[in-house]
Amino acid sequence: MTTGLTRPDGPAKLTGTAHYAADADTSDALAAALVTTTVPNGRLTALHTADAEAAPGVVRVLTRADLPPLGELSTPPLGFPVPPLLEDTVHHEGEPIAVVLAETWEQARHAATLVRAEYADVTPAVPFGQAEDVVPHGGLVFGETDESKGDVTAGLAAADVSVTATYTTADRHHSPIEPHATLARWDGDQLVLHSSVQSVLFAQAALAALFGVPPENVRVFCPFVGGGFGCKGFVWPHIPLAAAAARVTGRPVKLVLTRAQMFTLAGHQPATRQTVSLGATSDGRLTALRHTSSNASAQLGDYCENTPHGSTWMYASPAIETSTRIQRLHRPGPTPMRSPHEGPGMFALESAMDELAHELGMDPVELRLRNEPEVDPLTGEPFSSRKLVECLREGARRFGWSERNPEIGSMRDGHELIGWGMAAATMDSPRSPSSARLRIDHTGHVVVETGMQEIGTGLPAMVQAVAAETLGCPPEDVAVRHGDSDFPPHTGTFGSMSTMGLGSAVRAAAESALEKLGAEPGDPLAGALAEAGLTELESEGRWSPEGGGMTRGRTGGYSIHTYGSIFVEVRVDPDLGLLRMSRAVGVYAGGRILNPLAARSQMIGGITWGYGQAVLEQSVFEPNLGRFLSKNLAGYIVPVNADIGEIDVSFVDDDDRVASAIGAKGIGELGAVGVSAAIANAVFHATGRRVRDLPIRIHHLLP
Amino acid sequence: MSNHVAVTVRVNGVDREIEVDPRATLTETLRDRLGLTGTKKGCDRGECGACTVLVNGRRVLSCMTLAVTAHGAEVTTVEGLSSGGELHPVQRAFLENDAFQCGFCTPGQVMSAVACIAEGHATSDDEIREWMSGNICRCAAYPQIVASVAKAAAELGGAAR
Amino acid sequence: MRTFSYHRVSDVDVALAALRQPETQAIAGGTELVNWLKEGIEAPARLVDITGLPLAGVESTPDGLRIGALARMSDVAAHPVVRDRYPVLAQSLLRAASAQLRNMATIGGNLLQRTRCPYFRADTALPCNKRVPGSGCAARHGDTSAQAIFGWSEHCVATHPSDLAVALAALDATIVVRGEAGERRIPATEFHRLPGDEPERHTELRAGELITAVEVPAESGAEHSHYLKVRERVSYEFAVVSAAAVVQLSGTTITGARLALGGVAHRPWRLGGAEQAVVGLSVSDRPALLAAVAADFGDARPLPGNEYKITLAQRAAVRALQAA
Question: Which PANTHER family match (chain C) (predicted)?
């Protein structure tokens, strides 16, 4: 068993006492049920609410006209740039048009079915692929839409071998097990919100701006998030809607999205279509790399899945060209989802690398080793740390890659063909400010407070470890309190940024405490306080990347990213088209690993997400109806226990003091990258079938 | 409400008499009426397992159980598992193996694991994988869950509880 | 979900009388009905809880097996006689749903499951003749990947989802039902209805009737039997396609066979022609078996988008025969 700190929040989670948003006391709250559009476009012309209003237990039915005036806000922090109830123009199916408030959930849910809407000018929804590719603009474009260096056309012409192929990834839904939930309560001009969010800071700022009150009037609680994976990062319309309903009725309002509403009101990862061209010399050195992409987007917001992003720093090509576009469609708004950008993007790049290796007759690990860059190939700037070569070599060793017979279909076990495939992984390292307050009492007990919310990544254990390490005290002497906007602000639990920012802030707070005490790490804290004549000591720590705000990986003259390698064995039953992953080896370089136990769990989770992307997850967008067809977990299937076999996770030594003060980088999203390519490459090795469309389903594999 | 139904349920060893809306599920009744919010509502459609509780010793989905149909039953929720501040062996194994992340599916996983062991369906890793597949963990702590169930089963003597 | 009154019954005749009331539904395990209530697929005024009826026993007699309609799936699967002598039955139960759902769901309720067609199951009523008769079939020209290849009509292309029903069809089982007029016995192969122009009639069960038992004849010779379930996810998923096979063997030569497919029609699809054609073949002669099975697909009419099911179903049938 991997050693490390067990989670300080573990007993609460295991006994059912950890409080999630929907667990807040609601004895005096109204239950809210949303009514949503049933058409993808056109106009809402009438809403009939009388039947719902007359239903037992119903207190109010709110439509747009009933809402208080709300301020204007952009995306982000909003997830979708619309007022919380629709007025006229329909942007997508499943958009809120009314909210029913009743004494109980059963009453509200029933009454919501009694609201009738009329629409005009509804037209068939244009499917992805049939609209125009346009350049996206605004806050949901992460990174550049177009980047280039050198002459790709010339590089391809000069290549001994080249490959060009188009790859697609599916619409996918985050599907955390906890649905979005918000309890809103006003006391005069003070708003208290219990909400399942990945950033109490964003929620506080957004609600304050929308309702025209100072941020300090809005207090947001979210100690625990029951999974988010990106869908709780931004502020979605139901959150201000709950607050508006509470304002209008003068009663607390509890609004929990139904599972079906989670499919239209909290984002998704949009379908992408990507084309990769690679040229290489006969000895496997890249001469050109082109990666273009288009994704399905909504009418508003211009969410852009920047899939070619990783292709700009991954390999040493003299010519690189990337571009990313969107199609504005009548669909719900997409949002980042584990893992954004590189998640779908590296499926394409790493599949193409495998195709190139096959064309060259070269081992795919060797091809990657031959194209390892010294510096960032796009900018020429140094890498803060880059241990991809170590990951590739160690992964190959742990997997037993040298035993691989490159011949297609060379391994069989009964009905099954066995294939071995691999891919490299990378994620950008965005970073953001964080802060923490540390208090030491006269017994030497330490409390750290921070606005971070625990989402499963093990941040309380990380905070405990960093504080204990810096102070030189036992971890069990450190208690962590979190998820309250009154605590020192933390940007958000997303983008794999929290450990870098918060860990560095906690370290700063602890160092500041030692300095105030004139103590050295390891000095008994109770004694140090007594010596200084104090009964309690408080210190604050802050950390931010260069420039003070949120940054992406290329910052301050460095190229900051995380790396990994993933090797998988698949078993394909070609008769029945069945694909299973029998084992996986992942080796990662993600900076200094603070808690090996939680880090291993993170990577296992990520690899399982990659399996889901590769084999299972697909939200079918029904073109005739203009909606996601199956808004439930029977129609949208995610991995279950029996899908996941042996997973071997390890980390190479890495310590990146450019990325953060504690040497750590973010790993939450890295594990989900590359897995789908490794699986597709293994399927090719097993069967000779090159599947370029995810997920790889039965019908792909039936001859 | 006129059509409310009187229901007597023994929850975690305590008899509870309540009047319930016949539409209310056992999940909502435990959470909203009895204050036992450890039981979670994930999908509300029998598709995720987060709401798993024991009814008369068997694991069931409380979201697909109308509370009225639980009349006379003995219900055990995650709050009723540990006693005297001591974690149940299943909970302890989950903690030591890091078999959870966000924690939202965890009460359901734990209840399911207790039943899985009691049923005698924890004799091999493959058997545990299959018999724990009714509990989705989106954070995907599956290998750790398997290790935890195996460890707790060994401690509890396989099918013995 | 509209509100309803709730009644418990402990006597079959009382239950039948209660079910003759208008807008009345029976509830047992609840794993289907509660879903219908939540989605608005059904909105009864009265709910009759039949779990107190004495219909939960499993009896093994010289004539065969009699399974009470209220026996839970998990209990039937764990019954020693079912496990030892009817592997196809135990497998069909254990490969369905999850441990929790199998602890709840009853045998009768399993057979009364309605289609998993995503259009039927949607959060709001989409054009679906099963859900709202006359509203059309959005699936017919929509996403057909999970739809039928046999026996569909322009009014409905859905498949039935029960694994158990497929095994029972291959076992020549009988569904015993009771109503006002007394008992009726319906062959398992005919219990589910093809849609025709009345897709809203899912089964042969009439209003006011209850399933009381399922009977599996002893002569079904199920010792060599197998239920193969093909699905994307390893567990906890409905079948894409499934096959139940019951085989009699002399050495490796097939002397008798019964074969039923799931996931291909709104009824377990017996391959009568293939059952005869495989007699005399070696169970290890895959090409001959495949040819025999494929020859019985003359009635198959794939929809654009589910042609793969023909290949898949044929191979699943052969694999089930070979595994039996």
Answer: OXIDOREDUCTASE, XANTHINE DEHYDROGENASE SUBUNIT C-RELATED
